[in-house]
Amino acid sequence: MANVCVSLAGISLRNPTVLVAGIMGTNAELLCRVGKCGAGAVTGISCSLEPRSGAVNPCLLELGGALLNCVGLANPGVEAYCIELSKAVGASDVPVFGSVAGSSVEEFGLLAERVAAAGVVAVELNLGAHSCFGRRVWNLEEIGKVVEGVKSRVKKPVFVKLAPSLGLVDNAMVAEAAGADAITAVHSFGPGMVIDVESGTPVLSSRAGGMSGPAIKPLALKCVYDVCSSVEIPVIGTGGVSTGRDALEMIMAGATAVGIGSGVYYRGASVFSRVENEIKSFMNARGFSSLEEIRGLALK
Amino acid sequence: MSGFSESGMLPRTARIRELINESPRVKTFVLDARIIAKPGQYAMVWIPGVDEKPMSISRADPLTFTVANRGPFTERLFGFKIGDNLYFRGPFGNGFVIRAVKNVLLVGGGYGVAPLRFLAETALQKRMVPTVVIGARTASDVVLEEAFKELKVKTFVATDDGTAGIKGSCVDVACSLMDKEKFNAVYSCGPEKMMVALAAECGKRGVKCQLSLERFIKCGIGVCGQCACGGLRVCHDGPVFDSRVLKGVDDFGKRTRDASGVAHDL
Ligand SMILES: Cc1cc2nc3c(=O)[nH]c(=O)nc-3n(C[C@H](O)[C@H](O)[C@H](O)COP(=O)(O)OP(=O)(O)OC[C@H]3O[C@@H](n4cnc5c(N)ncnc54)[C@H](O)[C@@H]3O)c2cc1C
Ligand SMILES: Cc1cc2nc3c(=O)[nH]c(=O)nc-3n(C[C@H](O)[C@H](O)[C@H](O)COP(=O)(O)O)c2cc1C
């Protein structure tokens, strides 16, 4: 029988699937539900210091194979967030990660410290949000400073989530040098836009939004491949994964774990156990016994 | 054209064909369009540049919404005239499960009767016998009574102050009906506290009951998690739930969340 356990920055996962930040991660019950749906680990939505209502509706569109969203980092603020996450940590069958989105180096440190104290197993730094959400786009130097700042205050593993920008590989290398324990690549693509031709108005309330889902997978896969070629730390390959084959591609590109977000829509919340089973049946059919035998095959 | 533009996920537009003032606060919008949907499903009604909000489908053909004026968006909607265009996406959500049982009781509070009108129409087509209880605070707040009567549905009205129909809550009236007659299923939409009480009464009598919930809806397809009621996504797993599913849900009847996710007591 194929063994699909992985060790991600010292954290044991029963399978490589990870619920990404921003999908179904608003409360403890939903995070636990995703664990019961088979995820190897779950990530809460990204939090900020104060509550944020995000963009008004429409803030998410399905485009036939892709989602376009401008949810805009809606979250109840770090205080309420930590209460939910510590409940999730107590009740979840699987490791719970927190995600933070600061607006300065200092704020990232503060948020990461508080979220770590809520009991999560690892903290992810959301450094990949789009400017269309009114968020800053972080440059190379700032990414290094944010990661260093957080690492000096948090003893738990720190993951760095990056945008699929031209500077992705450089950003990943800077994050690694600053002490990141893993890279989550990638955030949504774009921004993209849909215009309603009857009214001549962009449909998303923020006009533009980040693109995710099956349509971005080849783009995300190449990003993951490039990052895995350049850093030693583990990578959570993210973007468009909804099947076992997608996950295997990410792992063959060198990913240690695989993020799943939009796949929750495309294949239902049971996408996690389905992907796990599809990975296992591939491995059994091909005679692979562990994911180590597959990881990075495409890099050779 | 084909593909995603017709999947309901992008806005369609339709002219307002008819406007009906149901009460000082509630207006019905009849559009020059139809939608393929199940009772209990909702559409996202969009005013470009303003906002987009969930509205129950109160009739599928012609597509009809029955809207209460509660705030900025619905206030804007109330300014629309016959001939103006409305935009909508959908249908979204699961809808009521309608088994071909005989006697069904529909219990609506306030604008919660909107989806029950579509449900009654569908039940009649399936040769079921629906009875409806419309709950309101006072006589002028009773909505859709005429619409149900036109369908020849047995209609009862309950008002808190007794100015129309029976004095009391729609739950009281539902209880006395259930004690007189055998109902195979109860369907309800309205204020959550009312539905908590109704579910308890149905439970005592062993009658199956489905409730349509409201939470702050954003994505409509179950990904953003904003509409969580415990571990349920109201927008996609719901808005209709079997009362037995809601039994173990801590938030049900107690807590809702705003656009940021901050929790508030109901
Ligand atoms: C599945 C579903 C079906 C609904 N069907 C109807 C209907 O048939 N007729 C009707 O009049 N109303 C219906 N509503 C409620 C309607 O969406 C709100 O009344 C409307 O959004 C109010 O917006 P506003 O700007 O006018 O008021 P606001 O002042 O913005 O809000 C008033 C209240 O409406 C609710 N609300 C606001 N935005 C949303 C949102 N995005 N999602 C859910 N609730 C919100 C909140 O509880 C808020 O407290 C439905 C809601 C849901 C969830
Ligand atoms: C509705 C939505 C909300 C998101 N919110 C966040 C967020 O809060 N923080 C974050 O780091 N990424 C967020 N993302 C990005 C996802 O975590 C992920 O990187 C991206 O969607 C690509 O993966 P996918 O194709 O599996 O969805 C969000 C994505 C979507 C669709």
Topology readout:
The complex is a heterodimer of chains A (300) and B (266).
Chain A: E1 6-8, E2 11-13, E3 17-19, H1 28-36, E4 41-47, E5 60-62, E6 67-69, H2 78-91, E7 96-100, H3 105-117, E8 122-126, H4 140-153, E9 158-162, H5 168-177, E10 182-185, E11 189-193, E12 195-196, E13 201-202, E14 208-212, H6 217-230, E15 235-238, H7 244-252, E16 257-260, H8 263-267, H9 271-286
Parallel strand pairs in A: 3-4, 3-16, 4-7, 7-8, 8-9, 9-10, 10-15, 15-16
Antiparallel strand pairs in A: 1-2, 5-6, 6-14, 11-14, 12-13
Chain B: E1 12-23, E2 26-31, E3 42-47, E4 51-56, E5 59-60, E6 63-68, H1 72-78, E7 85-92, E8 103-109, H2 114-125, E9 129-136, H3 145-150, E10 154-159, E11 166-167, H4 170-180, E12 185-189, H5 192-205, E13 208-212, E14 228-229, E15 232-233, E16 240-242, H6 243-246, E17 255-257, E18 263-265
Parallel strand pairs in B: 8-9, 8-12, 9-10, 10-11, 12-13
Antiparallel strand pairs in B: 1-2, 1-7, 2-6, 3-4, 3-7, 5-6, 13-16, 14-15, 17-18
Helix pairs in contact in B: 4-5
The complex binds flavin-adenine dinucleotide and flavin mononucleotide.
Helical content of chain B (DSSP H or I, runs of 4+): 10-25%
Contiguous runs where pLDDT drops below 50 for at least 5 residues of chain A: none
Given the helix and strand composition of chain A, which structural class is it?
A: alpha/beta
Measure the end-to-end span of chain A.
26 Å
Order of strands, widest sheet of chain A: 3-4-7-8-9-10-15-16
Total separate domains of chain B: 2
SS field, number of helical segments of chain B: 6
